[in-house]
Amino acid sequence: MADEALFLLLHNEMVAGVYKSAEQGEVENGRCITKLENMGFRVGQGLIERFTKDTARFKDELDIMKFICKDFWTTVFKKQIDNLRTNHQGIYVLQDNKFRLLTQMSAGKQYLEHASKANFR
């Protein structure tokens, strides 16, 4: 439980620090979002490499998605994905109804201003 609290505090401080640098004019808003995305990508890639180093090679995309939804998500977030959807053309949508890194942000209206400015792809 203490590890989870420390992780959440670290995550919140990282996001706040990057946005604070944008507000102070050190970096423009689009670049701070890219910086956060890059940090998340590197951390996720490192975790996946560590978790899969002793497993057999995946046969197809479906095996990869099953691993992410069951094993990876359970290890990192202590719960399975709530829903996995696909269009059977290589597009997968993972749904977590209580994603703990966003639940605090979504509870307050003060984050709506930042969300509307974000350039989501």
From TrEMBL:
Q: Which subcellular locations apply to this protein?
A: Golgi apparatus, cis-Golgi network
- Where does the source fall among the domains of life? Eukaryota
Q: Which InterPro entries match?
A: NO_sig/Golgi_transp_ligand-bd, TRAPP_component, TRAPPC6/Trs33
GO biological processes: endoplasmic reticulum to Golgi vesicle-mediated transport
Which CDD domains does the record match to this protein? TRAPPC6A_Trs33
Q: Name one GO cellular component term.
A: cis-Golgi network
Recorded family membership? Belongs to the TRAPP small subunits family. BET3 subfamily.
Concerning PANTHER family, the annotation shows: TRAFFICKING PROTEIN PARTICLE COMPLEX SUBUNIT 6B
User: How is this protein named in the record?
Assistant: Trafficking protein particle complex subunit 6B isoform X2
The species this protein belongs to is: Heterocephalus glaber (Naked mole rat)
